[in-house]
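Notes taken during the Thursday session

The instructor put the following on the board and asked us to keep it in front of us for the whole hour. The protein is Glutamate 5-kinase. We were told not to look anything up and to reason only from what is written here. First, the residues (391 in total):
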Amino acid sequence: MISMEEGLYLRQTLFDKAQRIVIKVGSAVLTGENGLDAVIIGNIARDLSFLHNTGREVILVSSGAVSAGRKKIAIDDTMVLGLKEKQALAAIGQSCLMQAYDAAFGAFGKNIAQVLLTHRDLAKRDRYLNVRNTLFTLLKWGTIPIINENDTVSVQELRFGDNDTLGAHICNLIEADMFICLTDVLGLYSGDPTADPQARPLYTVVEITPEIEQMVTHVKSSLGTGGMQSKLKAAGIVASGGGSSFIGPGRQHDILRRLFSGELIGTFFLPKKERINSRKRWIASVLKPQGALVLDDGACRALLERGKSLLPSGIVEVVGDFDVGDAVHCRNGRGEAIGVGLINYGAAEIRKIMGCHSSRIESILGYHDSEEVMHRDNIVLLRPRKEQLQE
Ligand SMILES: Nc1ncnc2c1ncn2[C@@H]1O[C@H](COP(=O)(O)OP(=O)(O)O)[C@@H](O)[C@H]1O
Ligand SMILES: N[C@@H](CCC(=O)OP(=O)(O)O)C(=O)O
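Then, after some discussion, the predicted structure tokens were revealed:
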């Protein structure tokens, strides 16, 4: 806990220092009764141009393609959409969205650039670095990149699923100082403010504890995808990369200008003190684990207390099917994930060598790629605490 004064001081200091900023705007902000809300899009363009004119680098992550497409071809509001309908609507709405932004930013003399991404673009390390280079080039040229998930081609199991998560990954990818998430509520409340009149606003969150997580319900606006849950998750991803986050109202006039001039609006999330390096952040937050290894107590201790690599001798069970190079969870005997890392052998190979000394790998498999099943440079400990070990 910190005092209100300390929270406000840190908030203002971090706003003043922020030079590279990712701003995410949700569908509920951008869409009105008749489709994309030109007034709101104009406000956003003015606000972002104001930040840009102060010499800051700004990147916009914008939702709204599906809801814009839905309004454009007048699909009944009560119709429940499946994945293929949403993908088709995104194809219709994305071009409307970009046309609206192009006109709005053009009025302030700004050039924009459309970047559509799938999860695969960030899950492969070479593509991840490629996206990073493109974004840096766009920023160097003074343009404002506008990013959305490439919904039309993203297959279900390889989706980000929501733009809050995508925005947080972009923040970490380009080492942004701050993630600003603009939505249809004033910020994070102690309960869902649209359902609970007693819910009170939170101004500063030092750490996303289970208590904070419990404040958030599954409820989302009629147009939203991720809800407050995915915004909290996003703030956690950004905090672990050393950035701060803000959740606040996207439909208010001059919101960014007012925020940066010190007005107390919305909820501010402080960065974590111990930040993990960019490669480990990529492993822990971008990759989707494809299976798990259950470890004995000695292996859990080696990882958690001594930061060692994982050897085959400490593995007691292999869960799921995965290939060399996939991300895989490490679990203790109670089934809790203690870490996640890149695997040096496929699931079938590990089933053969688990419980054995590393010196036997070659005789069992007929080849020997590495002593370790996971190298410590590729392991991210999720909860490095002693209580994780079995008594
Ligand atoms: N504790 C909470 N504080 C604020 N909003 C909450 C909370 N719990 C649930 N919500 C819901 O989250 C919604 C915002 O998320 P979402 O609909 O996905 O917006 P967006 O389209 O901007 O991403 C709010 O409209 C609100 O109903
Ligand atoms: N990519 C989708 C938006 C997905 C999403 O996260 O929506 P939201 O919760 O409104 O930010 C679209 O452009 O419609």
